[in-house]
DNA sequence: TATGCACCCTGTAGCAACTACAGGGTCAAG
DNA sequence: CTTGACCCTGTAGTTGCTACAGGGTGCATA
């Protein structure tokens, strides 16, 4: 399959596929006589793995480790679990942070009573951390 | 006050202060005879505004608009409210996304039973979107 | 007086993870 | 035989910083 087909099959931008190849996340595919990239099912599976992992928020380096692991079926699975667990912890931390932030923003937005900028409670709140209820 | 003092007073990296000046978020300060930047209270207040807004997740461009607004006290406050409300909506959207993601990751991590990579449920789940319960 | 040290300056390059060209080649249909 | 869709390489841009390299300044101490 050519790069456009792989792109459609996986919902990945063509430029992104070439980028993944450039950084060594995807192997270099064979080329046709016209120097077009030619992909097979293993490429598609690997790209699907990468995209799915990216959607779940794993970094490229984490994905590299996970791919290394799956390329070596005899290795112990615990590293995959460790990477995923650590990532889960980061996501939970991010949710906690954003929740504080949302509460703060809700308070700030709620203060708006219209009028001119000189009296704007939103602008006032942004300039003065003292109005905040939580650390962020 | 010199840049190091401003840095300590606002908890902002020196390089970041110079970066904000370069992109026009902070005005160019006066210079001493030795060409050192010399800041006053208005600079500190403006930088505090910027940092606080950044902590709340506003983009540089949003902050630019908010600063323009506060520089012109006669303008209507509604744009500030609009920017903050839109940002709040984005934060809520992000929380919702991350919550789905967290649930998916929790499911994936929970599947790990140890063993070798060939049988790894984590790696399997990453390679196959079909295991997922929600869109992400 | 020398010298160390903390601080300041400019300018440029790097980070993540793409995205967007510019400027060209290939191929099948009408 | 030309039009249009597709492909190629290489480079530069995005956001919001951060990290140098290579230099100058200012003050205290030996």
Write the layout of secondary structure elements.
Two copies of one chain form a homodimer.
Chain A: H1 3-10, H2 14-22, E1 30-31, E2 37-38, H3 41-55, H4 60-71, H5 78-110, H6 121-127
Antiparallel strand pairs in A: 1-2
The structure holds a DNA duplex (30 and 30 nucleotides).
In short:
The structure is a homodimer of 136-residue chains. By secondary structure, chain A is mainly α. In chain A, 62% of the residues lie in helices and 3% in strands.
Reading off the top of the CATH hierarchy, the class of the largest domain in chain A is best stated as: Mainly Alpha
Write the H/E string of chain A, N to C: HHEEHHHH
Tell me the Rg of chain A in angstroms: 23 Å
Oligomeric grouping of the chains: homodimer
Q: What proportion of the residues of chain A is helical, as a percent range?
A: 55-70%
The assigned structural class of chain A equals mainly alpha
Number of contiguous helices of chain A: 6
The biggest sheet of chain A, with number of strands, parallel, antiparallel or mixed sense and barrel status, is: 2 strands, antiparallel
In one word, what is the shape of chain A? elongated
How many domains make up the 3D coordinates of chain A? 2
Write down the CATH topology of the largest domain in chain A: Multidrug-efflux Transporter Regulator, Chain: A, Domain 2
Strand content of chain A: under 5%
Please describe the structure with a list of short key phrases separated by commas or semicolons.
homodimer, about 140 residues, Multidrug-efflux Transporter Regulator, Chain: A, Domain 2, 2 domains, two-stranded antiparallel sheet, 6 helices, about 60% helix, DNA-binding
């Amino acid at each position: 399959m050519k790069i456009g087909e792989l792109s459609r099959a996986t919902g990945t931008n063509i430029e992104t596929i070439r980028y993944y190849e450039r950084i060594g996340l995807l192997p270099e595919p064979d080329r046709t006589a016209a120097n077009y990239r030619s992909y097979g099912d293993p490429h598609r599976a690997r790209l699907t793995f990468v995209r799915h992992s990216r959607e779940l928020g794993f970094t490229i380096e984490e994905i590299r480790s996970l791919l290394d692991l799956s390329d070596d079926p005899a290795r112990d699975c615990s590293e995959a679990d460790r990477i995923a667990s650590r990532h889960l912890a980061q996501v939970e931390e991010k949710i906690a942070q954003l929740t504080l932030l949302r509460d703060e923003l809700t308070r700030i937005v709620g203060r708006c009573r219209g009028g001119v900028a000189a009296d704007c409670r939103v602008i006032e709140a942004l300039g003065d951390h003292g109005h905040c209820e939580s650390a962020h």
